[in-house]
Amino acid sequence: MPMSPRTLRPRQTIHPEAASWAARVVANGGSASGLTLNAVDKFCKAVDAAGIRSIFYRVNLFCGGTSGTTVGINSCVVPLYRGQSATGTQFGNTVDTPNLFGVGDYATTGGLTGGGSKYLDTGFATNILTAGNRHIAAYERVRSGATFNTFLGSEAITGVAQSFSLGYGGSTTTVQFGYGAFSANLNAVTTSAVGMWLGVNTPSNTGLIYRNGVQDATTTQSAATPEASNIFVFALNRASAAAAANFYTGTLGGYSIGLAMTATQALAYYNAMQAFQSALNRSV
Predict the structure, then answer these.
(1) CATH architecture of the domain formed by 16-279
(2) What is the rounded CA–CA span in Å between residue 156 and residue 162?
(3) CA 146, CA 166: separation in Å to the nearest integer?
(4) Tens digit of pLDDT for each residue in 16-52?
């Protein structure tokens, strides 16, 4: 009896931006396991499928390497995206330049933990994004900080009238998205919860906060045209004082910087990010 032809499964094609990330991790002295690469690959494909890739100028998922090693730190500071596409203009530092982070600050099943005077310099200047069309986001996994903690943000040399930040303001439980000026702060409703925080400044000058893909707060406030000031992560880049400030104490599973999002896009982004965290066995 003739044998039935064997059905071959198509070989999985790794997303080119996931492959690029892995190569850049190795070039930076890090490593990427098959599990991690697969999770990054699925994140890239989910972003593409949702049609939101061009929104992102910079994304870092804080992954790769092994917990508590130099290889781990060298891996997690390599961003996945540095521009609106892999072949277009790339912005900011090739890696998130760390200040004072050590091997004990990174865990593959946790993320990157800040505290004290630790921060990352993205090299991404706020004036790359126009006022009224920008976002910043952070996936907060563990909160342990005190007053005035900034997930990420910057303040231009001219002072608080040129700020763009996401984090706590005034208490340990009030999450705020500041844009244009601190007087334009927007307070989240779900103040005590952790999760993925997304601050959006829309073309209609509406400020929005999303938590886990669901709108949590809104306001209308004209936004100032941003000046050049690098965005820091785990702190506010207080360029007016030439120093980092408002250090965030807690663990982040990633961040992003880019253009504004609609509610549908914000939810799709959260779903992709949550699936990524779950794939790395990070509690979500």
Answers:
(1) Sandwich (2.60)
(2) 5
(3) 15
(4) 999 999 999 999 999 999 999 999 999 999 999 999 9
